[in-house]
Design a protein that fits this description.
alpha/beta, disordered C terminus, 5-stranded parallel beta sheet, disordered N terminus
Amino acid sequence: MSGSAIGGIRVVVVDDEALIRSGLRMLIERENDLELVGEAGDGGAALELIRRVRPDVALLDLRMPGIDGLQTLRAIADDPLLQATRVVVVTTFETDENVFAALQAGAAGFVLKDAEPAELIRAVRVVAGVRRCCRRR
């Protein structure tokens, strides 16, 4: 997907809106230490993609048709093979209930879609750093 440096942070983007996926793709591809390794438009496709490419970080929308973001997040958290993948929820819904539900389901971070691009990139780097520092043995 992107031509980032070898050993960079591997990222997948999951959102049902093509325009949002495109914008996130552009943000990721302009960073030398990030590598876009896939995109999905719904939770089912996301789970298949994440199981196949094993990214470091998944950027995940909460509200999607079919398997929504919370169900997808729970499936990632419950799969022992995906424990190394950290999820940053990217959503327009800022309610305490959504934040709590996402964190309880296993999200490592939460970024609103109206955040500054640098904030999203920082979140990716922070949660990837947590993964690299805290690998399970």
